[in-house]
Amino acid sequence: MSEEWRRLAPRTLLAGVVVLCGVAGGAAVPATLGLAGSRPLWQALAWVLAGAALLVAGGGAADWVRLRRTRYRIGPERVDLHTGLLVVTRRSLARERIRSVDLTANPLERLLGLVKVRIGTGEHSGGDSTLELDLVTRAEGERLRRTLLERSATGDPGHDGVLAALDPRWIRYAPVSFVAPLLGGAAAGAVMQVSDWFGAQDEVLGWIGDRFEDVPLVWMIVDLVLLATAAGVIGALGLWVEMWANYRLEREPGGTLRVRRGLLTARSVSLEERRLRGIELVEPLGIRVVRAARVDAVATGLAQDDDDKHADLKNLLPPAPRAVADRVAAQVLRETEPPTGAPLAPHPRAARTRRLGRALAAALGPAALLAVLGLLLTPVLLYVAAGLAAVLVPLAVLLALDAYRSLGHGVSGAYLVSRSGTVRRSTVALQRSGVIGWTVRQSWFQRRAGVLTLSATTAAGEGAYHVYDAGESQGLAFADEAVPGLLTPFLENAGAPPTVR
């Protein structure tokens, strides 16, 4: 039988009023100061308080109407949501299509015992693939999650329970991520932007100049970079704490993986195991240097919206020691040994040559341009070009050689494994049964080098995972071994090294 129609939590009104009071309070101070310049202070306060009261009352009334006009129902086959006043929206999702029920709550919502429930199908169809209940009680949110993700028990119950929990020592990986320099640059840009808003940018630049008046230009730049880096490190540590505090990865009875995390904004993401097609081990350069990795899910039902706040649904494990990442990957896949740790076949030397050529072209291109300008304009640019080449060429060669060493592919039990990348190295273990097609690509340069790129097409994750610059016969033999019969109709000379027709 279908449930009765239910409404959102009445405390939603209180949450909305508190937010509006904060907005009104934040706008009241500058508005009062602005009005006080042309009229008495008491009159300015009266106008501001009247505007604030109107804002809070109007927003509260709108929330009350939304609360009264929004209702939802969990039926045996469908989930229904009706909302709207002038334009009434009626939406419905088939329960069999539901792939995720995610709960989020900001600090105010947590204080009031409320959560936002996001019910998704994981399809790339915009807002038609999700329903959002904003807001319900925490108990109701948990009930909805259990009810909508309830499935008959699958797998070995002995594997249920906590798969991973937060180790505070993992915070040491936050400063070596790419987030730190980005936050440092953002902090420096924010200081200049805010000072410009208040017309004080010249004073800020003057103050910086006074501090470094007797310091050579090179050391001043170094000092400013170090200050920005320190700000970025502090920001990265704070962001890590906010994102990963209280982290737990659990397998619940019935075959559901659940990730819970967040300090101020609590998040709960659920993923059905039957939608899991593999694991991606991600090693950004800084994190890889300290032998750590992150674990992401390769699954259907995790289609990303344009809304960036849902872009982290696939994260199963924060950057952690590589041994921990491999162990968690094996536990998530219910394997005794992690496929991501399997030995991989190296790629031919032609792949190394291609990476060296591209890296040198990228490094020498700017230097060559500066050299040409130096010949035409001023010899100073020639010295700049030489210095740029001296710095970029060794770095490019090192990255190219590392990119070549990172290439690899292989078969590990029920999974095909592919690894590539240097700035962001990725090792993907994809279920062989989840591969629905192969794409073989060969550019003119690849044909001359005797290599090709294979793409395993799947309905999960990014839709395709690649094996870059494998040898021709090597790559085709791997594809035929990984998914027997799928590529066979397109191969010729079965007794000889395989080639594409």
Observed structural traits:
5 domains, 13 helices, 26% strand, PH-domain like, seven-stranded antiparallel β-sheet, 501 residues, single chain, alpha+beta
What does this structure look like?
- InterPro entries: UCP026631, YdbS-like_PH.
- Residues 68-148, 405-474 form the YdbS-like PH domain.
- The chain crosses the membrane at residues 44-65, 178-198, 218-241, 359-377, 383-401.
- By secondary structure, the protein is of the alpha+beta class.
- It has five domains: 6-148, no CATH class; 157-166 and 245-341, PH-domain like (Roll), CATH 2.30.29; 179-243, no CATH class; 349-405; 407-500, PH-domain like, CATH 2.30.29.
- The protein contains 13 helices and 22 strands.
- The protein has helices at 11-36, 41-69, 107-111, 138-148, 179-197, 201-211, 217-244, 285-289, 322-332, 349-376, 380-406, 444-449, 472-482; strands spanning 6-7, 71-74, 78-83, 89-94, 100-105, 114-120, 130-137, 161-165, 248-252, 256-261, 266-272, 276-284, 292-299, 315-321, 408-412, 415-420, 424-431, 435-441, 451-458, 464-471, 491-492, 499-500.
- A seven-stranded antiparallel sheet has the order 7-6-5-11-10-9-8, with helices on both faces.
- A hairpin with a 2-residue loop joins strand 15 (408-412) and strand 16 (415-420).
- Helix 5 (179-197) crosses helix 6.
- The longest helix has 29 residues, at 41-69.
